[in-house]
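Message: I would value a second opinion on how I read folds in token form. Give me a protein, with the fold worked out from its sequence. Write it directly below this note and I will take it from there.
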Amino acid sequence: MQKFLWMPCPYGEYTVLPFSSMNILGWTVMVAFGFNAAISVRVSNELGAANPRTAKFAVVVAAGTSFFFGLFMALILIVFQNQYPALFSDSREVQQLVYELTPLLALSIVINNVQPTLSGVAIGAGWQAYVAYVNIGCYYLFGIPLGLLAGYTFGMGVKECLRFGCGLGTSNPSSVQN
């Protein structure tokens, strides 16, 4: 007889994540990936031309711009916290969960906009293997075990796992790469 792994969570928590939070986070991360590619090329070109000060200035500008873009998007979500959940669902329960998860989503947007930019800096400096090891290590050594531990051992629901896991999952690569 097969046994399936499941986490006990209300129906509404499953619908709120893919349609609202992950869509918005995905849209903003696309901009961050653009910063990743741009700063990677810029840093590699400046270092190749023996201009480390210009490369450093480009890093500061790109990291600051990506941070302020993430902050701007987070502020838009906070300001329209009552209105935007209706774009994704007619259910009051789902809209309430989106409302409750909006501060966490805003924080994730700010952090997730800076992290790809810092990865782009490391890639532009020629540290591709280091970036890959850090990202894979944080995901497989921290993210998955902590998620399983929080979900199955401690019985946390989706909201609690997100609050716990997003903070650790997004801060590990950023802190290690700094």
Remarks:
- The chain is about 80% helix and 0% strand.
